[in-house]
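Re: the multi-chain job from yesterday

Posting the exact lines I submitted so nobody has to dig through the queue logs.
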Amino acid sequence: MKSEKISDAVVRRLPVYLRFLSELSMREVATVSSQELGQKLDLNPAQIRKDLAYFGDFGRKGIGYDVSYLIEKIRQILNLDQQINVALVGAGNLGQALSNYNTYLKDNMKIVAVFDASPSKVGQKINSLTIQPIEDMVETVQRLKVRIGIITVPDVEAQRVADQLTSAGIEAILNFAPTILKVPSEVRLHAADFTTDLLSLAYYLDNEKENDKHDA
Amino acid sequence: MKSEKISDAVVRRLPVYLRFLSELSMREVATVSSQELGQKLDLNPAQIRKDLAYFGDFGRKGIGYDVSYLIEKIRQILNLDQQINVALVGAGNLGQALSNYNTYLKDNMKIVAVFDASPSKVGQKINSLTIQPIEDMVETVQRLKVRIGIITVPDVEAQRVADQLTSAGIEAILNFAPTILKVPSEVRLHAADFTTDLLSLAYYLDNEKENDKHDA
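And the result, structure tokens for all chains:
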């Protein structure tokens, strides 16, 4: 069912669908149309139908999608039907902010360990997790079968942390350090650097203005 | 020179190019080939040439790109040749972490104001900015000509903040709250929710394994 041809853009929309479907499920809504999904998510309904059709034939004409069934399917597609352990490396402001997200992650994905290089932070608790020394990282990652690492250390330390996580057998890295990391091709790397988001937003500032002018 | 047809994926790569080019410039490297850029950034050189060709004819066959010239051009394309003021709404751990990024932003983009709803935070300083009460937001955004807003408030407050920023005339929003915001079509909205990043990474976990199996 899975194919390497699915673009990352499609994959990144699945958690967005999942979140809205979970909201519907909590409100005990049984079915939803691609039109309703599209309206809520500001996406073209045809795009949504196409995205979901990559993975199977989930919708029924005139009825729409069964909310519970679609939640179950998307969770399977995202591998969230199994426990996925996550480690957070770097317990500064950003690391602490991210550890708060454990509440939102729900599902089976969970931050199970936090590491920091600073002796003053080791032993402190953030969100019920005790900060561990970075020297213990490889051993702990292997023992807890951590599959995803989140890097929130300063940029000069990021590559070394990525190397250690890789050597410990991690499968995917979400990097918040504002630097370009090199990892082996079998490790999936996403850069979550917010300066990229912010600088790319600036691109749209003048465009909007130009459109306004045309409209006027 | 600008066109609405440029995909967001291309736009998001421009800051990445810009960052590496700035590194080269600091090392006093005068020219760079698309091969060198591609190797460093893990991108296909043809992809890089295509990305840059959307905006102009910057490279020279057999020589490559003039580093200083390309930096200047990308900064122009991203509107970074003008001052762009940014406001941060929400001074929790995430907001504080993001305010640290002012150092990385350099260029002309700058966080010039921070707001929070909590009276205990108002008046405190983070990275030389005094936290202001959220009630002052609309007035301050207009007075300082803030064009981009970063939302790092809890999800239940995010839509109200987005509405206020919109009414204050903001042009773009980077939203970190894990909720789907509705903004008028003239406001550019990027969602920087890290749970989406993390959940979509999980998609690739089993794929990697399947590949390993095939390789074995």
